[in-house]
Amino acid sequence: MTTYQRVLLKLSGEVFGGGRVGVDPDVVAGIAREIAAVARQGVGICIVVGGGNFFRGAEMQQRGMDRARADYMGMLGTVMNCLALQDFLEKEGIETRVQTAITMGQVAEPYIPRRAVRHLEKGRVVIFGAGAGMPYFSTDTVAAQRALETRCEVVLMAKQGVDGLYSADPKLDPTATKFDTISYQDVMMKGLKAADATAFALCMENKMPLIVFGAEEEGAIARIVAGEKIGTLVS
Ligand code: UDP
């Protein structure tokens, strides 16, 4: 018996590119293998996919683009990641469905929450793309929202290059220390950044726990689902 029966995994775009722009098929194949192993245990898995490996609206705005248009580009970028992940999951023999918040019938289903739950009940992995379909939002916030709407027990937030939530950015501050557990209130008060504030607020308000962990850690998702305490638990 696993600790969790249904989880929402948030994969930031950085994870797909292995830290570079675009999609690295070897990296995605590795993530798919991990997710497939967990799915085979009968754990329901929803995935919200980021797009920072292609475009981030706020960065494009700083370089002269209209924010909303750049955000739509960002959302479209997430869909490319979704399709790559779907492909490698299916190569692992896992049934998947991609649902997008911007309708694009040729490549994915529209986001229909009840249908997503039905897919989960049938053992399919459901991948959510195109964020919320709205500019000025982030895929972190969408992860919290989708987790709530599809009744997941926890949000698993995979991070590239960091293995949990730290008192400061460990890449910039060598004295930064990692939290094993922390409350949402403390995250807010200390101004810690591992997900955006809206996502944290949504989780806090609705008592949805969140685990921040390192995407590079071997078998991390399976270990978390089995009850091992890795990364940082925010609750
Ligand atoms: N985005 C958006 N609305 C959403 C989700 C995403 O406008 O609901 C845009 C936004 O420009 C964002 C980009 O898509 O910068 C990529 O998403 P995000 O930055 O959340 O991806 P991640 O950091 O997880 O790779």
Automatic annotation (TrEMBL):
GO terms for molecular function: ATP binding; UMP kinase activity. It catalyses: UMP + ATP = UDP + ADP. One of its GO terms (cellular component) is cytoplasm. UMP binds at G51, D71, A132, G133, M134, P135, Y136, F137, S138, T139. GO terms for biological process: 'de novo' CTP biosynthetic process; UDP biosynthetic process. The keyword ATP-binding applies. Gene3D superfamilies: Acetylglutamate kinase-like. Keywords: ATP-binding, Cytoplasm, Kinase, Nucleotide-binding, Pyrimidine biosynthesis, Transferase. Its EC number is 2.7.4.22. Inhibited by UTP. The keyword Protein biosynthesis does not apply. It comes from the Bacteria. Residues 6-213 form the Aspartate/glutamate/uridylate kinase domain. It is found in: Cytoplasm. InterPro entries: AceGlu_kinase-like_sf (IPR036393), Asp/Glu/Uridylate_kinase (IPR001048), Uridylate_kinase (IPR011817), Uridylate_kinase_bac (IPR015963). Pathway: Pyrimidine metabolism; CTP biosynthesis via de novo pathway; UDP from UMP (UMPK route): step 1/1. CDD domains: AAK_UMPK-PyrH-Ec. Belongs to the UMP kinase family. HAMAP family: PyrH_B. Homohexamer. Catalyzes the reversible phosphorylation of UMP to UDP. This is Uridylate kinase. It comes from Nocardioides euryhalodurans.
